[in-house]
Amino acid sequence: MAFDIKPDPPVPVIVKTGCICPEEDIWFTEIPEDSLASEEPKIEALCFRGKEVEGEILTAVEVIPKSDIQHHIWNKYKKEIKYQWFYSNGDREQRSFEPLVSQVSCSYKVRFEDIGRSLKCECTITDVFGRTSNTVSAQTSSISPGIPKIDKLEIEGRGYHTNLYAVRGIYSGGKEGKSRIQWLRSMVGSPDLISIPGETSRMYEANVDDVGYRLVAVYTPVREDGVEGQPVSASTDPISVEPDIYKEVKQKLELGSVKFEVLCEKDRPAKEAPGAGNLERRILEVNRKRVKVVKPGSKTSFPNTEIRGTYAPPFHVELYRNDPHRFKIVVDSDNEMDLMVQTKHSCDIIVLVIRGFAQRFNSTSLNSLLKIET
After folding, report:
1. Which of 245, 34, 47, 28 is nearest to 139 (CA)?
2. 239: which strand partners?
3. Which part of the chain is the AIR9 PH-like domain (predicted)?
4. What structural domains and CATH numbers belong to the chain?
5. Where are the beta strands (DSSP E) in 128-223?
6. Could you tell me the pTM of the whole model?
7. What is the pLDDT of residues 2-20, one digit of tens each?
């Protein structure tokens, strides 16, 4: 009796290659005598998914030939797909491509440096038998700048009213043009934003008007060609009085009555800058119930009260952004007075003490007494 003896099949081997698109762990080490495996792997074409715009992600996608054999090879015997990205050099007539050495995955995030260039991706597939397809490639048109935007916007600063604050962020979307920044104040617990006139730079120097408020910076990114992106905002914690000043103000408020020596400018021509007139000495007296400014007496005159009033509204104290040594006391529309001191420190002390007494007199939040021009 005869037996039909068949040869042993090829021995399967477990292969771990770290390939990009693994389908199975068991591959043959030799090519089967099978028409399905006799054909080399092929890529019909390569195309891109994604926008050809800065900041976007382009993904190279292979088009598999429609034949059943190629589909079987891709599903059964695919081992590895390799990619290499390139960028263009030169103009259209003398264009060449340089490799982006580290860009060897199917996806690529378009960079600022790519604007105006073309990108190219080359692709090959290798099967488990070591056969490699012909290289196919796809090329983009000229990369366009992205829509302007600002990411990771934040405000840097120590949190006190004497500090300098800076807005920082990461811009993208072509070359940055004249982006706009506006500083504002926000009362804690309120959605309202109050613009700070003239404060439109990246740096902002805080003052006593900011005490109790959050500082807010609104950044509108603008591209070099004028295209605008969406405004983005960042804010601080509520601004506090600088500790040494706070200690001094608290001591004076506990006393209940304080006198300050100040200066009053007289006979200044209307068109002249502050300081052009004669500076005369005055005594500013403040207590829990009222404020008054007294012109001291002399050998030929008695002391004279030039302004006097309680803290009842519309009383307020105004600062001058362009002169940290000056402030204005406003009792009402008919009674107001500009005063000066030698240092910003003294000005801060006086303003905070007056506002502290006024706050207690009116039983209101300090924020409601901050006079802000809009």
Report:
1. 47
2. 211
3. 265-361
4. 13-139 (2.60.40.2700), 149-235 (2.60.40.2700), 243-369 (2.30.29.140)
5. 136-139, 149-156, 164-172, 180-187, 193-195, 203-205, 213-220
6. 0.76
7. 444 444 444 333 333 333 3
